[in-house]
Each structure stands twice: as C-alpha cells, then as structure tokens.
Design goal:
It is a single chain. The protein has nine helices and nine strands. It has a domain at 2-107 and 176-231: Metallo-dependent phosphatases (Purple Acid Phosphatase, chain A, domain 2, 4-Layer Sandwich), CATH 3.60.21. It has helices at residues 13-25, 44-53, 62-66, 70-73, 78-90, 93-100, 130-136, 209-218, 223-231, and strands spanning 2-6, 30-33, 105-108, 111-114, 144-147, 154-157, 171-174, 188-194, 199-205. The protein is an alpha/beta fold. Helix 8 runs antiparallel to helix 9. Strands 3-4-5-7-6 form a five-stranded mixed β-sheet, with no helix packed on it. It has a four-stranded mixed β-sheet with strand order 2-1-8-9.
Length: 233
Amino acid sequence: MKLAIISDIHGNLEALVSTLDEVRRRGIDEVICLGDIIGYGADPSGCLSVLREHHVPCVMGNHDAAAFDAEVLSTFGSLARIAMEWTISRLQTEEVDYLRSLPYRIERDGLTFVHASPLNPTEFNYLIDIDDAANNFPAFDTHLCFIGHTHQPAIFCEDLIGRTVVRDMRAIVNVGSVGQPRDGNANAAFGVFDTEEGMYELVRIAYPVETAARKIYAAGLPRQLGERLVFGI
C-alpha cells in the first residue's frame, strides 16, 4: 500500500487541492494528515471541508489546538496570533468541535504519526537536529515516525548518521509542508511511503501560489503571510 503523508496545510486551499490531485494521479491508496490544517492562510474552512469530505485521518497540530485552547494560542508569535485570531473568528462551532476531536498521535501498520514530535506530542516541541532526534527515538516503538511542524523536510535515522529511509533502521521523517514550505522552495511538499517496498519519497509540486497569496492580501491578513508563500520562507 502507498501512503501519502501531508502536513501543515495552514489554510492554503490551492496547495491542498493541487496536492490531492497529485495523490490521485499517482494512484496512492490513502492520505494521512499530520495536522496544522488551519492558521496563516485564507481558507481554513475550505481546507477542513476537503479533508473531511475525503475522510482523511488527521492528528492534532498546534494551530488546530489553538482554535479552542487559549493557552496554546498564547505561545504564538505576533504574526501567527493575528492569523489565528482571524481564523477563529471565521470557524463554525462544528468545525472547532472537529478540531477538538483530533488525536495527538496515530499508530498503525508499524508507523507512528504525530504533528511535532513523538516525545510529549501535546507540547508541540520542535524536532530540528540530531540531538532532538536522539531524545525522541525512545518515545516510539515503530519502524518510522512521521512528523511535520518545522515546515522543512528532513530524515533522521536512529544511528544519527543516515538520512534515507531503509528497511533495517528506524527513522524520524519530516514530510515538510503542503501549505507553507520554509526551506526556500515554494512548491508544496508531502511524503509518499510504500509499505510493501519500504521506500519513501519526498514529493514537491507547483501550485497556484500567487492565488493563495492574493487571498491573504484580500482578507486583510498581514501581507508578509502571503509574500512568504511566494519565496518558500
């Protein structure tokens, strides 16, 4: 079976639709979302609707949690808080209830899925480097753990040297961001894992980024939120 693992959509409907179109084109069997469906972008309800319509399993991201948890929202920087407050004002009660229902962790088929890190996933700590990875390997028992949160694709193998997914070594895999890449590449990012072959692929696809940015400007959100999409930062 082939799994598409998506993360950090952040209200970017154009990126999400383009990603799911590519998923269908590739004949991928299932999609799993690692959270942060909302926040930053101008289409929070649209993104929620698409994921729910397609019955995509999702875990809780910190922006998702901030829709109903003021303590999480209080940890955000100024840009993220402005965007999140705008988002909250536009969500319906049943949409917030859906976000509240999301699990912080999914385990299945020898794989773990969390938003930020397997160690204390409710705290949304960043997993950025080898030291962070070393601290997190004891927090899951499966072959692979898929994460997002940093918006930057990466692979950390258990030997703390390898940077590719192989059958005989556990790894933490960051699939990057669909809706707000921050690695200098504006193309949407997502991961594809073949459970039978044990092979992982990072996929990058172009999407109508200017359209997504214009929606942010039209909504009156901080202009920087649209400009960063264009540059992938």
